[in-house]
C-alpha cells in the first residue's frame, strides 16, 4: 500500500529512525503503526535511533585511494568514544564509506546540505518538463516531489544505495552499524579528489593528444 508523508513523519518522530527506514517499515506492515515500530525494533533501527541524541565527538578520518592514485577520498566519521573508534566494525564502516564515495560521487552528506538555489533550479527544470506534458498543476507538483526525492537519492550520501549492497541505503548501513557497536555514529563530512580536475591543459598538451588520436 502507499504510505503518506504524514505517516512517515509520525513514525520517524516516534522512533527516531531514518525516513527511508520508516517508509519501508510502514509498507511492510501495510500502514499499521505498531507493527511498523516492531519492524524497526527487530531490525535494530529503533534502538539505533535512541542513541542518536548522544554526542559523537570521537571517531576517525578514513582514506581511500583508487585508480592508481587518480581518485582519493577523505571522510570524517564520528562516534562517542575512542575505544569504539578503534573497533574493527567501526574501521570497516569507515573504509566502506570512503570507497562508496569514490564510486558514487555524492555532493553532500544529507539533504539539508543541498544549497537552496541548486534545489530550486532542479525544481524549475522538472516543472518545465512536466508542463510540456499538459498535466494539471496539482499533478505536476506531485511529479516534482517524486523527482526531487530521486535527486536527493543521487546526490545525498545517506540516501544513496550502498554500492556493495544496493538493497540498502548508506543511512540503513549506518543504523545497522550503530546497533551493532552500541554507540551513536555520524558521517560528518567528506572530500573527493580527482587528479587534474579543474585544471586547464596547456595548448601543447592538447595538440599532442589530438595528434595521437589522429595517429600522427
UniProtKB/TrEMBL annotation:
The GO molecular function terms of this record are: translation elongation factor activity
Protein's name in the database: Elongation factor Ts
Query: Which is a Gene Ontology cellular component entry for this protein?
Result: cytoplasm
Sequence similarity: Belongs to the EF-Ts family.
The record's gene field reads: tsf
This protein's UniProt keywords = Cytoplasm, Elongation factor, Protein biosynthesis
Q: Where is this region: Involved in Mg(2+) ion dislocation from EF-Tu?
A: 81-84
The record ties this protein, via NCBIfam families, to: tsf
* Pfam families per record: EF_TS
HAMAP family named among the record's database cross-references: EF_Ts
Q: Which PROSITE patterns match?
A: EF_TS_1, EF_TS_2
